Inverse folding.
């Protein structure tokens, strides 16, 4: 891989990180709806339970953040690093000699 390919690869990874970070921050800030008049409906109970829309939103956001992190890690996995992950230190040093 030459320098231009490496630079393009790094730029792609940075754009992906920024996109995921921006989306995650938008989701974090969406929770602020709970404190505004626009989101007043989130304080109402869901059906006949004691669970409010705010609590359901909070649990849903946490689950979504975990899923987003797993997707990001899956997309951003470095294939070369995974190939050598199972080797022991001894086999690495013997190959280097």
């Amino acid at each position: 891989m030459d320098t231009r390919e490496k630079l393009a690869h790094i730029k792609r990874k940075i754009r992906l990180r920024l996109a995921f970070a921006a989306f995650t921050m938008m989701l974090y800030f969406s929770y602020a709806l709970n404190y505004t008049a626009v989101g007043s409906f989130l304080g109402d109970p869901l059906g006949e339970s004691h669970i409010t829309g705010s609590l359901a939103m909070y649990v849903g956001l946490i689950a979504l953040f975990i899923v987003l992190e797993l997707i990001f890690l899956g997309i951003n996995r470095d294939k070369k690093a995974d190939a050598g992950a199972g080797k022991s230190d001894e086999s690495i040093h013997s190959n280097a000699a």
Summary: The longest helix spans residues 3-30. The CA atoms of residues 44 and 52 lie 5 Å apart. The two ends are 24 Å apart (CA to CA). DSSP finds four helices and no strands in the chain.
